Structure prediction request, 137 residues.
Amino acid sequence: MIELLKNSGGKSYLDIYSGTVTGTPTASIDPYGDVLTPTSLTVSAGTAPAGVSQRWVADIPESATTIEQEATVSWSWTQGGTTRHRDIEYNIIAPYVHPVDACYRLGFSLDPSSANYRDPEEIYAAERLARYAIESY
Prediction:
């Protein structure tokens, strides 16, 4: 399951591997799991990686990640005259240490021009590994 950090929002991606989407897809998130309060998300075209014909990106607001729980982003789009749907599950978690704080304490920088630069994904991966090790103990 894809992880989102609590109170930090995120992005959801819809990759189309064959053909193209007619119009712009729609996406919504149900942050409370009750299907009564889905929140529509802002969707824009993204840069498709190799092997993907189209990529769409939905911005998940911070307000949808305030509770540690599972949340579902529901995508809907039309392709070749057929309406299609895809649900993507996310696990909203509270990290043991926020990556910005970890960088500060370890002497790293999130500024790409710094000699001590560390990619944010590297810091997130280290936090996930540490959390897994602690919770699996």
